[in-house]
Amino acid sequence: MALQKEMRNGETENGQSMALAPTPEMVVLWEGIHARLRKEFGDAVFRSWLKPLSLQAFYHGIMEIAVPTRFMRDWISSNYLDRIAALAREANDTIQRVELVVAQTTLSDPDTASDPDVLPHSEDIPDALAALSSPLDPRFTFDQFVVGKPNELAHAAARRIAESAHVPFNPLYLHGGVGLGKTHLMHAIAYRMREIQPNKKIVFLSAERFMFQFVKSLRDKGTMEFKELLRSVDVLMIDDIQFIAGKESTQEEFFHSFNALIDHGKQIVISAGCAPSDLKGFDERLRSRLGWGLVVDLQPATFELRYGIVAAKARTLGATVPQSVLEFLAHKITSSVRELEGSLNRILAHADLTASAITLDMTQDVLSDLLRANDRRVTIDEIQRKVAEHYNLKLADLFSERRARAVARPRQVAMYLCKKLTPRSLPEIGRKFGGRDHTTVMHAVKKIEELMQEDGSFKDEVDLVRRALVG
Ligand code: ADP
Ligand code: MG
User: How far is the CA of 179 from the centre of ligand 2 (A)?
Assistant: First the structure.
């Protein structure tokens, strides 16, 4: 690949790149991994994302893989890197880490490599728009999206947009932490719309790509065409808009297109890591404008949702995984859905490559590093959220003065768990429960201990909540 020659230009002078060059054995090993990735993820994903990867170097247990653009690096890092690393480790246990390095430094398209194979799915979007749009991940459809309480509103809103003939709310603004399904839902809207409203012109852009296209149009003196193109769409989706923070001219351009589209009744969908009012480095007008339509947040996945997702994923992969293992994963891997998927993949790969059965022991073994990372300390906030969720209460109930048994008992359970699971003192815990006295907390701890001794089913219940918190 021509790309490879350009990279590490600065380093060839001092001969470093020679020293780093991978051995033939490593090249063969990488080719095996590459082939394996194609088999696992299918041709479409492979062509769009994985094909352009190449082995760059291997040293000190680090396998360096070259990718053509920053966008691809980020995308691969969030979606495929876990799997690549797992395969690498399986193939050779001296490999400790896989790192992605960007092999081009000039202004480059963040979403598509220069390899002509890597152009976005262009089958059914008009050419110019196809070239504008970011590629869609074929796995991100509504069918593959598991709905639970934390995301049901976002899911319903996304579906409504995809399936309505008119614009139901504008813009739809989805926000929430990393890996909760924002990008998935946006791609799902695009897929669904293409199915049932094939005439709609849809453009999905990562904020980074939006910026790239805009800067490119300035450079090529094609700003007018860019504006026209952007304003000719029926649906404009911009993913991770927080990335245009501080980029004034890009924001300005976005703001104008945004207003023009909204004025013409065209649908806009935005995702971000935070609520509109919390967007730092954003023009005030833009911030308030973004909040005019429907703002929906995706909450962190609950145990039930995590279980649903990991079970669905196993089903999709056609793998038989014991329920105990699925439950274990859903309990333990709480950091993000992405990591949850990654751990399932790792277990399946391990079972496959070593021809062993999937068991709880094996799972703990294979995931030991991940499990440690997820085994962090529980906080009072988490306990309160979990208890409120378990007893179907509002968080505010735990802080309130209400003494009704249905509220008071769960509040005591929460205090008890705070005492047992965190290093916080009684007065500190009391303060976190609407400024209560430390003697109230002490009383709660005693009371719950008594009840647990007297009543086995109550004990089971408290243990269940405790396990959901610490596993
Ligand atoms: P975000 O854009 O919010 O950071 P993504 O949409 O990229 O998150 O989701 C991360 C990964 O988790 C993707 O592989 C996605 O398919 C998966 N995922 C997230 N939520 C769900 C869900 N509810 N059902 C199925 N898969 C999900
Ligand atoms: Mg995303």
Answer: 7
- Length of the chain equals 471
For residues 203 and 127, the answer to whether their CB atoms sit within 8 Å is no
Alpha helices by DSSP H, 319-455: 323-332, 337-353, 360-366, 368-374, 380-390, 395-399, 405-421, 426-432, 438-454
Which ligand has the shortest distance to the CA of 174? 1
Asked whether the predicted pLDDT for residue 151 surpasses 80, the reply is yes
Task: Report helix, strand and coil shares of the chain as percent, to nearest 5.
Answer: 60, 10, 30
Query: From CA 230, how far away is CA 148, in angstroms rounded?
Result: 34
pTM: 0.61
Q: What whole-number distance in Å separates Cα of residue 97 and Cα of residue 88?
A: 9
pLDDT tens for each residue of 55-85: 888 777 888 898 877 777 888 888 889 899 9
Rounded to whole angstroms, the Cα distance separating 335 from 358 reads 23
* Residue labelled with tokens 């005439």: 199
**Which atom of ligand 1 lies closest to the CA of 186?**
6
Q: Give the C-alpha separation, 397 to 405, whole Å.
A: 12
Mutate to test the pocket of ligand 1, among 304, 337, 340, 345 (most ligand atoms within 8 A of CB): 337
**C-alpha 326 to ligand 2 mean position (Å):** 25
